[in-house]
Amino acid sequence: MADQVRSARTEGIATITLDNPPVNALGADLRRGLMAAFDKAATDPEVRVIILVAAGRTWPAGADVREFGKPPEAPLLPELCAAIAGSAKPVIAALHGTVLGGGLELALAAGVRVAAPGTTLGLPEVSLGILPGAGGTQRLPRLIGAKPALGLMLSGLPIAAARALDLGLIDAVSDGGAAEAAGRLARAYLAGAAELPTAAERAAGRKPDPEAWLSAVASARAGLGNPRLPAPGRIIDCVEAALLLPEDEGFAFERTAFVELVETPEAGALRHAFLAERHAMRQPDLDGVPAREIHRAGVVGGGQMGAGIAVALLGAGIAVTLVERDQTALAAGLARVATIHERAVEKGRLTPEAREAAWELVSGATVLDALETADLIVEAVSEDEALKTQVFADLGRIAKRHAVLASTSSSVDLNRIAAATSRPEDVIGLHFFAPASAMKLLEVVVGAGTAPEVVATGFALAKRLGKIAVRSGVCDGFIGNRILTAYRTAMDFLLEDGASPYEIDAAMRDFGFPFGPYQGLDLTGLDIPWARRRRLSLRRDPARRYVAIGDRLCEAGRLGQKAGKGYYLYPEGERKGVEDPDVLRLIAAERQARGVVARKVGAAEIRRRALAAMANEGARLLDEGIARCPSDIDVAMLAGQAFPRWRGGPMMAADQAGLLEIRNELRDFAREEEAFWRPALIWDELIKNGLTFADLNR
Ligand code: T1G
User: Fold this and answer.
1) Ligand 1: nearest atom to the Cα of 68
2) What pLDDT, in 10s, does the model give residues 483-533?
3) pLDDT, tens digit, 9 for 90 and up, residues 362-391
4) Among 24, 57, 65, which residue has the most ligand 1 atoms within 8 Å of its CB, making it the best to mutate?
5) End-to-end distance of the chain based on CA atoms, in angstroms?
6) What single DSSP character describes residue 26?
7) Is residue 524 part of a domain?
8) Does residue 605 share a domain with residue 472?
9) Which of 367, 389, 423, 657 has CA 20 to 30 A from 323's CA?
10) Based on the domain organization, do 361 and 507 belong to the same domain?
């Protein structure tokens, strides 16, 4: 505790330094140390000004998320903030880095805030399903006004120091270090050359505008979105209470709301998602294993995926040579790269300067020999095993020693591709999700012969690209696509049994997906999975149920949005589809041909079967050792398949539904179709030991 907080006193100024790497999270030890140091400074007659400063990369980035769900330890952060805010001596908070959550609330308790250039400030609690619970909902609106305060708390997004200065959230942006600026201000105050009010003196001088305040509250309430998430509404209630209640009751109101929200399943799932994403990137077996340096990369194949990967690499400052089979295809590939950049600039996601800088790093070629100096070569040619194998055989000869050879394929066996190179230790799978320039998930697929430093290179590259990496073993579909296929199969069974695609999509939107499975197929194209089904048809087990409705739609030219019709009709190329009676007739004809008598399928059954199918496929991935742990599976579905974040992923959702409940449902469904619904072995293992999937993550 003592080494997390240091104090120094000079010329009547006490400087208290917080030092709890990596982000000065306000855990119990840090709070205890800070409370003790602050009390000492506050009662020291030699001390006239107190400066709070943080060591390392950032001022506290929030409460310690890992403490949630555990018995709270004194002093609670609200108590610590109240002690600082009640100080009779001026307190200056010297800010830098990412001043977030409880860290910003700690800063709000000070009388004056000085931030270094580049500091960002925010209250992201809403993204964890909770609210600022250390006085933020009470102090922030009083400081900057209800409307901007609600904007910060409901968006959860950080703002830059300059914006914070405009709002009055901070008092100055320092020239250089904030701690030095705070020291100058304190000395000027002691010399009688500057004002330095306490928090209480500043608060006393503020007179809120009740009408504007209540109007901001009403407007925020009118704009509330997902009713499943209680936190936004409670934030608004707290801001309203900050105006209407006496100060101490306002703080009590906030505390009650905070404690309620922390216990909700949504908050538990959102915390799980936050920690799971960081857990997925940590690979203890690679500690000390050096990643190979990547300065130059080659991308083989300039289709949509290859172009997206090129843009992702360029965005990380990696030079890219795009290789295509001939000049025409190369020009088309480079045009795709330019189009992705252009769209990003139009949407404000990329500055024109950054686009120019990226373009300086692009080159093109029509021969693989152009990649002989590349540190990384990513193959993104079409899903044809013979072609991929040939490409890797050539790369095995051409690529320099220790170049990393990566395949993006999720359907061609990586070990067979690696064998074609005669250097399997350099071969890895990097499974990007389309659009590769935007989707966060990157599955790092480890082949039988992949060298540890090549795996480490995959994870280091993911971090450099700003992506979330999930480790996968070699199988058809890896983690995300395998679970997606299981989900779609279960929905196809219901489609043939009697549900309409529109009922299924509505039920799954209500589950929390942004769109249903059939809207998703129309978006990505029905022909892609159709080609895969035909490719696998020779290996298909005739004893297993096969639903051919998708095939019938493709045979009728209904390939999805790009064809103007799929499961939905897209009048004049509109992106929003409308229900199509022709599709219902086609499905009815297919049921008749299969001798299926349609039954009513309710929304609850649709959602139960969808979750059971996804969680069971995830359980199989654990049984087979393809996925390292349940939370990796959750991350793959959250970051790659738009699984609703406030449910935490299929394995977390299964834990919350109850493993016995899901296992029994699987047994029921297996009576209809044993091979697909048979429960994975791990269900009984966990149930009989009274464990959950979460226990496997520890
Ligand atoms: N608690 C505990 N550990 C944290 C943490 C936190 N709040 N934030 C980050 N870490 C760990 C993280 O797990 C990782 O650990 C390492 O720090 C680097 O993080 C009362 C209740 C600050 C922008 O939501 O947004 O305050 O893997 O990999 O990409 O109202 O971390 O190295 O072992 O993410 O540079 C509110 C969450 C909490 C901020 C840095 N605060 N953190 O990003 O590094 S609730 C937040 C972030 C709260 C109060 C309420 C980011 C970052 P390891 P990283 P990064």
Assistant:
1) 21
2) 999 999 999 999 999 999 999 999 999 999 999 999 999 999 999 889 888
3) 999 999 999 999 999 999 998 888 999 999
4) 65
5) 25
6) B
7) yes
8) no
9) 423
10) no
